[in-house]
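fold-stage: in
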Amino acid sequence: MESFLDLLNSYLADEATFRRILVGVTALTIFILGLGLTVLIMNLTSPLRRRIGLAAHEPPAKDRFLVRVSTALGPVASYVLPQKESERNNMTEQLISAGFRSPQALQVFYTVKSLLIVALPMVVLISSRWLPDLSTRAALTYAIFASGIGMFVPNFVLIKLIAKRRKALRNGFPDALDLLVVCVESGLGLAAAIQRVADELSFSHPDLAFELATVNAEIRAGRPREQALRNLADRTGLPDIKGLVGLLVQTMRFGTGVSDALRVYSEEFRDKRMQRAEEQAAKMATTLIFPLVLCMFPIFFIIAIGPAMIRIMAWMNG
């Protein structure tokens, strides 16, 4: 290993040899990228693979583009997707939490990530030709940095999408809980009440309505009610929904009244929401210190003391 490092350092010390190595690596990368794009375009324009993919998944019209991308990635999917099953399952759960439920979402995500890892360094290396003051080693450093950006930016965007969707679910959960209590107390069963709430929230809170409709669809498909509710908690990842699911599961297991349990949970959740609002209000005074000190006080001092300072400076100069 030490001899290899010494050889590498000797090559890097020679500027001409280093440039030859860089040109060779760049040419090989461009060749591999062009070959991969050729394979993808051929598979994407193949009517046979496209019809096989459409027949296998039967997606709606909005997901047909993902199906075409997935069928085009068939030969290279094993190189793009992670090898560990646990990593694939973890990423699939994150995509579902972000709202991407298509079976092709995992392949599209890793394809975009792979393209960014390869394309961004190529853009940096090609752009370095118009920057004569930029040295070769600096261009290579920037290319490696751009490759790192292409590796981590998709994960960062996915985390932001998950947080945004969970915030939307959290905002719609109080309304859904109140409607669920009203529907159950009016005599509807749990499945019918969930479907009714999903229909009522389809315009105001579409994400939460879709999750509730998915629970009802799983129950109608024959999945046990407890498992369907636990899947809801796993998909959303919200503590409030997990608490509601745990309450409903215990209620169905011990045979107690669903309406009484929902009423008690609604009152507790309303108290928690009030406590959370009071906590945010208590933090407001501390949070306002920084904008007041940085923005308001300098302007106040300029307006209050500025004219006097101008007169004093004029008197000293005169």
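fold-stage: in (second)
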Amino acid sequence: MATQTTEVGLVGLGRMGLNMVSRLLHGKKTRVVAFDLLADAVKQAVLKGVIGAPSAEKLVGMLKQKRRVVWLMLPSGEITESTFQKMLTLLKQNDILIDGGNSNFHDTIRRHKEAKAKGIHMLDVGVSGGVVAAERGYAMMAGGSKEAFIFCKPLFDAMCQMGGCAHISKEGGSGHYVKMVHNAIEYGMMQSIAEGFDLLHKGRFKNLELEKIAHLWNHGTIVTSFLMEMTENALKKSPTLDYFEPYVEDNGEGRWASIEAMEHQVPFVSNTYALHARYLSRDKDSLAFKMLAAMRNEFGGHAIKTSAKKR
């Protein structure tokens, strides 16, 4: 049996999955079979060099490697659950099933137990980097079998930045747990940046060039960061962010982390406030909330609400 995989079946070709394909195929060392409910997404992946599958069931049958690896890159919730259960009936003992979506770690812990009962190895992998990671490389946090992680290492090496992947723990759910906390911190950092630019916009000195300030802050200051770079990119496109409605979605991870902190009596003030600020955004007009929406759109391609006057 091969010590490491040279093949993967990828289910889910959305914002993240389709971009991951490009990195998986770089160097032509990995055979990728992919499926998505949207036929156009499969067609786009095929143009990149993927072998398209007509269904999830067919995808498993099209994998040639004796020890099959299937990677789910789907939204958390029912679609991940139903596909996971389907894969338990299709995969065989010693195969590997990876959940790379942002699943709730409570669900992931249960899924590890269900997979183990079938003799299937599972990895839960928190994936970070957004849509821009197609060029920059991803960061990945893996929980579950260390042996399965090593077997799948060529996949991680192909997709991640140097040093951007780690096996977190053999405990199932640990990868998604660490990604959840990461995203909660992200909420807090984004909120801080957004409020700072709101003060620049409304404070004592009028007509400050926010794009110029963001550019400056990305060159040697303590707040130089990926998120500040996304801020600069957004301001280049729309200096006053008039294109955006001040409406900021939350995808679950910040909420789950705040609940976890309360259950364990861990102070989580900044990040919990940032979560509640997103709820507040839906009833308030401010540059801060437009900035939050703009940052999310820049790095993750997350949906936005556009201003009526710009439609």
